[in-house]
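Thread: quick sanity check before group meeting

JM: Hey all, I'm pulling together slides for Thursday and realized we never actually wrote out the predicted structure for the chain we discussed last week. Dropping the sequence here so it's in one place. If anyone has concerns about the input, flag it before I start.
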Amino acid sequence: MSSHDIQTSPHRRAPAHLKLKALIAVLIALGVVGWGIASRARDKTALVSLTQEKLVPTVQTIQPANRPDAQILTLPGTLQAYYSASVYARVSGYLKHWSVDIGAPVKSGQLLAEIETPELDQQLKQSEANLATALANERLTEITSRRWQHLLVSDSVSQQEADEKGGDYEAKKALVDAARADVERLRALESFKRISAPFDGVVTARKTDIGALINAGHDAGHELFTVADVRRLRLYVNVPQSYANQVQVGMKVQLQVPERPGQTFSALLADNSRSVSENSGTVLIELEVDNANGQLLPGGYGNVRFDLARDVHAVQVPASALAFRKEGLSVATVTQDNRVAYRSIQISRDLGSMVEVASGLSTADRIIDNPPDSLEDGDRVRVAQATAGPGGEKKS
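JM (edit): ok, ran it. Output follows.
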């Protein structure tokens, strides 16, 4: 075969460099396709991861605060005189004169006023006359009875007649006793013409004047005087039921009154009502205040400060952290692996924006503030900001 035939044959082999180029082109194409598939897979994985990440709720946590210091409780109180008596008239008449006015110190038995009682005076005279008549009749019947007893010895009179005279004497004696009792009653009423102080104290009210018509008895008219013992005062305070077990007899409290700004008075808790008022849900307590210097006024009010020992085991959390579930009152805590765990709690005191939890929590717990209703036990969460501080105050 000639060289010409070889050069013009259609089945001759392609040069080697062309095969190499083709192979490189195929590899590049495969690489582009593979890169696209891998990139799309990475994007899909990232999208799934981002979606799952978005589904995890972000929460803010706080830590309960433990405040073992004394708790200050301030409540309004009312001051009253240790003894206070409204003095009424026991006899009717007209006020003759009065001896003391409001603000005057008086001693027990001291004369306050005197009443004119013309009707009572006449009744006493009549009763004394009746007593004299009864005494005279008694003497006469006694003499007669003795005489008939002597006549009975000589059979001059019958036993029946002697017994009748003796019975008449006994009846007259009873009439004397009745007349004497009536005189004593009226004399006792006469003593009430003088209005006296029932005890040592101060006259806080005078509601009568000279010549005024006086009606006897509580229901018949108003009081004439009011006398109060203000050397000691009673202080009454209504304590909420939640604090009743912390307010004990014998504890000391501090009192401040508006008319003595800057001054503090000490009071001693004497007793309590041992019952809760249905209307207010409070326990009435009574304290005693020394008022020997007369600086405090009965009938006034003041602010009473109680220094209550706080339960060292109790912790405080914001009210916003509370969750009301079918299991009861609880809070949502975050575990070490950022999972939700609900805990049942028991509140000892409601302080408004804060609550004091008696059991179920410790200061080491992480509590979710404002937990969403959708959170369930075991849900994973993301903690955006851990806070800690007294009373659950948030910190950056």
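AS: nice. Residues 196 and 212 are 18 Å apart (CA to CA). The helical segments are 3-7, 16-55, 118-153, 159-191.
JM: adding both to the slides.
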